[in-house]
Design goal:
By secondary structure, the chain is of the alpha/beta class. Helices cover 39% and strands 13% of the residues. α1 packs across α5. The chain is globular, with a radius of gyration of 20 Å.
Length: 230
Protein backbone atom coordinates (compact mmCIF):
# COMPACT_ATOMS: atom_id res chain seq x y z
CA UNK A 1 0.00 0.00 0.00
CA UNK A 2 1.25 3.46 -0.89
CA UNK A 3 1.29 5.62 2.23
CA UNK A 4 1.31 8.77 0.10
CA UNK A 5 -1.95 7.82 -1.60
CA UNK A 6 -3.71 6.26 1.39
CA UNK A 7 -6.13 8.65 3.06
CA UNK A 8 -7.79 8.14 6.40
CA UNK A 9 -11.46 9.15 6.12
CA UNK A 10 -12.22 12.22 8.20
CA UNK A 11 -15.59 13.51 9.30
CA UNK A 12 -14.54 17.04 8.41
CA UNK A 13 -14.07 15.97 4.79
CA UNK A 14 -17.81 15.27 4.62
CA UNK A 15 -18.59 18.88 5.46
CA UNK A 16 -18.56 20.74 2.18
CA UNK A 17 -16.91 24.14 2.30
CA UNK A 18 -19.76 25.62 0.29
CA UNK A 19 -23.29 24.25 -0.03
CA UNK A 20 -25.10 24.31 -3.34
CA UNK A 21 -28.02 26.70 -3.34
CA UNK A 22 -29.69 25.67 -6.60
CA UNK A 23 -32.68 23.33 -6.74
CA UNK A 24 -31.68 19.63 -6.74
CA UNK A 25 -31.66 18.31 -10.31
CA UNK A 26 -33.28 15.00 -11.21
CA UNK A 27 -33.39 12.97 -14.43
CA UNK A 28 -36.22 10.45 -14.73
CA UNK A 29 -36.13 7.47 -17.12
CA UNK A 30 -38.98 5.09 -17.90
CA UNK A 31 -39.06 1.83 -19.82
CA UNK A 32 -42.05 1.72 -22.16
CA UNK A 33 -43.19 3.52 -25.31
CA UNK A 34 -46.82 2.44 -25.20
CA UNK A 35 -49.43 5.15 -25.67
CA UNK A 36 -50.74 4.41 -22.17
CA UNK A 37 -47.48 3.50 -20.47
CA UNK A 38 -47.86 2.86 -16.76
CA UNK A 39 -44.14 3.24 -16.14
CA UNK A 40 -44.40 6.70 -17.74
CA UNK A 41 -47.46 7.54 -15.64
CA UNK A 42 -45.67 6.48 -12.44
CA UNK A 43 -42.66 8.53 -13.55
CA UNK A 44 -44.87 11.57 -14.06
CA UNK A 45 -46.27 11.16 -10.55
CA UNK A 46 -42.69 10.99 -9.24
CA UNK A 47 -41.83 14.14 -11.20
CA UNK A 48 -44.74 16.05 -9.66
CA UNK A 49 -43.64 15.02 -6.19
CA UNK A 50 -40.01 16.02 -6.74
CA UNK A 51 -41.07 19.39 -8.16
CA UNK A 52 -43.41 19.95 -5.20
CA UNK A 53 -40.48 19.24 -2.87
CA UNK A 54 -38.45 21.91 -4.67
CA UNK A 55 -36.54 19.92 -7.26
CA UNK A 56 -35.86 20.61 -10.92
CA UNK A 57 -36.95 17.67 -13.06
CA UNK A 58 -36.31 16.43 -16.58
CA UNK A 59 -38.03 13.35 -18.06
CA UNK A 60 -36.27 11.67 -20.98
CA UNK A 61 -38.53 10.40 -23.76
CA UNK A 62 -36.97 7.13 -25.06
CA UNK A 63 -38.82 7.23 -28.37
CA UNK A 64 -36.30 7.57 -31.18
CA UNK A 65 -33.32 6.43 -29.11
CA UNK A 66 -31.39 3.90 -31.23
CA UNK A 67 -30.28 0.52 -29.96
CA UNK A 68 -26.85 0.66 -28.31
CA UNK A 69 -24.03 0.60 -30.88
CA UNK A 70 -26.43 0.80 -33.83
CA UNK A 71 -25.61 4.51 -34.25
CA UNK A 72 -22.71 6.75 -33.29
CA UNK A 73 -22.54 8.77 -30.11
CA UNK A 74 -23.36 11.89 -32.14
CA UNK A 75 -26.97 10.76 -32.61
CA UNK A 76 -29.23 13.58 -31.30
CA UNK A 77 -31.15 11.37 -28.86
CA UNK A 78 -27.92 9.89 -27.49
CA UNK A 79 -26.47 13.36 -26.98
CA UNK A 80 -29.68 14.52 -25.31
CA UNK A 81 -29.59 11.60 -22.89
CA UNK A 82 -25.89 12.04 -22.08
CA UNK A 83 -26.27 15.77 -21.52
CA UNK A 84 -29.14 15.14 -19.12
CA UNK A 85 -27.15 12.47 -17.27
CA UNK A 86 -24.33 14.97 -16.69
CA UNK A 87 -26.78 17.69 -15.68
CA UNK A 88 -28.61 15.58 -13.10
CA UNK A 89 -27.62 15.15 -9.45
CA UNK A 90 -30.05 12.28 -8.93
CA UNK A 91 -32.04 9.86 -11.07
CA UNK A 92 -35.22 7.80 -11.02
CA UNK A 93 -35.46 4.65 -13.12
CA UNK A 94 -38.90 3.09 -13.63
CA UNK A 95 -39.50 -0.02 -15.72
CA UNK A 96 -42.32 -2.42 -16.41
CA UNK A 97 -41.54 -6.03 -15.62
CA UNK A 98 -41.62 -8.01 -18.85
CA UNK A 99 -40.82 -11.72 -18.96
CA UNK A 100 -39.57 -11.45 -15.40
CA UNK A 101 -37.11 -8.67 -16.14
CA UNK A 102 -36.71 -4.96 -16.77
CA UNK A 103 -37.42 -3.91 -20.34
CA UNK A 104 -34.83 -3.54 -23.08
CA UNK A 105 -36.10 0.02 -23.56
CA UNK A 106 -34.83 1.08 -20.14
CA UNK A 107 -31.67 -1.02 -20.40
CA UNK A 108 -30.83 0.64 -23.73
CA UNK A 109 -31.02 4.07 -22.09
CA UNK A 110 -28.63 3.00 -19.35
CA UNK A 111 -26.31 1.34 -21.88
CA UNK A 112 -26.00 4.62 -23.77
CA UNK A 113 -24.76 6.36 -20.61
CA UNK A 114 -21.05 5.48 -20.36
CA UNK A 115 -19.12 5.15 -17.12
CA UNK A 116 -16.94 8.02 -18.26
CA UNK A 117 -16.87 10.69 -20.97
CA UNK A 118 -13.33 11.96 -21.11
CA UNK A 119 -12.55 12.92 -17.53
CA UNK A 120 -16.23 13.23 -16.56
CA UNK A 121 -18.16 10.36 -14.95
CA UNK A 122 -21.81 11.21 -15.68
CA UNK A 123 -23.39 8.94 -13.03
CA UNK A 124 -20.74 8.32 -10.38
CA UNK A 125 -21.71 9.52 -6.91
CA UNK A 126 -25.20 10.57 -7.95
CA UNK A 127 -28.31 9.31 -6.21
CA UNK A 128 -30.74 6.80 -7.70
CA UNK A 129 -34.25 5.56 -6.91
CA UNK A 130 -35.68 2.48 -8.65
CA UNK A 131 -39.33 1.66 -9.31
CA UNK A 132 -41.29 -0.86 -11.34
CA UNK A 133 -44.82 -1.59 -12.50
CA UNK A 134 -46.36 -5.00 -13.08
CA UNK A 135 -49.41 -6.21 -14.95
CA UNK A 136 -49.97 -8.96 -12.40
CA UNK A 137 -49.06 -9.60 -8.79
CA UNK A 138 -46.35 -7.63 -7.04
CA UNK A 139 -42.81 -8.51 -8.03
CA UNK A 140 -39.34 -7.13 -7.46
CA UNK A 141 -37.39 -8.64 -10.36
CA UNK A 142 -37.01 -5.38 -12.28
CA UNK A 143 -36.02 -3.23 -9.30
CA UNK A 144 -33.48 -5.85 -8.22
CA UNK A 145 -31.90 -5.77 -11.67
CA UNK A 146 -31.85 -1.98 -11.68
CA UNK A 147 -30.09 -2.01 -8.32
CA UNK A 148 -27.33 -4.11 -9.86
CA UNK A 149 -27.06 -1.61 -12.71
CA UNK A 150 -27.04 1.30 -10.29
CA UNK A 151 -24.06 -0.23 -8.49
CA UNK A 152 -22.34 -0.83 -11.82
CA UNK A 153 -22.87 2.82 -12.73
CA UNK A 154 -21.37 3.75 -9.32
CA UNK A 155 -24.53 5.44 -8.13
CA UNK A 156 -25.82 5.86 -4.57
CA UNK A 157 -28.99 3.79 -4.78
CA UNK A 158 -31.35 4.63 -1.93
CA UNK A 159 -32.74 1.80 0.27
CA UNK A 160 -36.43 2.40 -0.46
CA UNK A 161 -38.11 1.35 -3.71
CA UNK A 162 -41.53 1.06 -5.32
CA UNK A 163 -43.28 -1.85 -7.03
CA UNK A 164 -46.82 -1.24 -8.27
CA UNK A 165 -48.83 -4.42 -8.87
CA UNK A 166 -51.73 -4.60 -11.36
CA UNK A 167 -50.85 -1.10 -12.48
CA UNK A 168 -53.83 -0.95 -14.86
CA UNK A 169 -56.09 -0.68 -11.80
CA UNK A 170 -54.17 2.14 -10.15
CA UNK A 171 -54.82 5.02 -12.57
CA UNK A 172 -57.89 7.01 -13.54
CA UNK A 173 -58.89 7.94 -17.08
CA UNK A 174 -56.86 11.17 -16.87
CA UNK A 175 -53.69 9.20 -16.13
CA UNK A 176 -53.44 10.21 -12.47
CA UNK A 177 -52.68 7.65 -9.81
CA UNK A 178 -55.51 6.82 -7.42
CA UNK A 179 -54.95 7.19 -3.65
CA UNK A 180 -53.48 3.92 -2.35
CA UNK A 181 -50.65 2.36 -0.40
CA UNK A 182 -48.78 2.13 -3.71
CA UNK A 183 -48.99 5.88 -4.19
CA UNK A 184 -47.92 6.48 -0.59
CA UNK A 185 -44.84 4.34 -1.20
CA UNK A 186 -43.90 6.48 -4.22
CA UNK A 187 -44.15 9.55 -1.98
CA UNK A 188 -41.84 7.80 0.49
CA UNK A 189 -39.32 6.93 -2.22
CA UNK A 190 -39.20 10.44 -3.68
CA UNK A 191 -38.88 11.98 -0.22
CA UNK A 192 -35.96 9.68 0.57
CA UNK A 193 -34.31 10.35 -2.80
CA UNK A 194 -34.59 14.10 -2.24
CA UNK A 195 -33.04 13.84 1.23
CA UNK A 196 -30.17 11.63 0.05
CA UNK A 197 -29.49 14.02 -2.83
CA UNK A 198 -29.33 17.03 -0.53
CA UNK A 199 -27.04 15.11 1.81
CA UNK A 200 -24.58 13.81 -0.79
CA UNK A 201 -24.47 16.11 -3.82
CA UNK A 202 -21.86 18.49 -2.39
CA UNK A 203 -19.53 15.68 -1.33
CA UNK A 204 -20.20 13.20 -4.14
CA UNK A 205 -16.65 13.41 -5.50
CA UNK A 206 -15.23 12.69 -2.04
CA UNK A 207 -17.60 9.76 -1.42
CA UNK A 208 -16.49 7.95 -4.58
CA UNK A 209 -12.80 8.87 -4.39
CA UNK A 210 -10.93 5.54 -4.48
CA UNK A 211 -7.46 4.50 -3.40
CA UNK A 212 -7.05 2.16 -6.39
CA UNK A 213 -7.88 4.93 -8.85
CA UNK A 214 -5.58 7.42 -7.12
CA UNK A 215 -2.80 4.83 -7.34
CA UNK A 216 -3.51 4.09 -11.00
CA UNK A 217 -3.52 7.80 -11.87
CA UNK A 218 -0.23 8.36 -10.03
CA UNK A 219 1.41 5.45 -11.88
CA UNK A 220 0.21 6.73 -15.26
CA UNK A 221 1.51 10.20 -14.48
CA UNK A 222 4.88 8.76 -13.43
CA UNK A 223 5.18 6.87 -16.70
CA UNK A 224 4.47 10.00 -18.73
CA UNK A 225 6.90 12.15 -16.77
CA UNK A 226 9.70 9.59 -16.76
CA UNK A 227 9.43 8.30 -20.31
CA UNK A 228 12.57 8.50 -22.40
CA UNK A 229 12.87 11.44 -24.78
CA UNK A 230 12.07 10.60 -28.36
Amino acid sequence: MSQELFRQPQETDLLAQTRASHRPRFLLLYGSVRERSFSRLVTMEAARLLETMGGEVRIFDPRGLPLPDSETESHPKVQELRDLAQWAEGMVWCSPERHGAMTGILKAQIDWIPLSIGAVRPTQGKTLAVMQVSGGSQSFNAVNQMRILGRWMRMITIPNQSSVAKAFLEFDDAGRMKPSAYYDRIVDVMEELFKFTLMTRDVADYLVDRYSERKESAEELSKRVNQASI
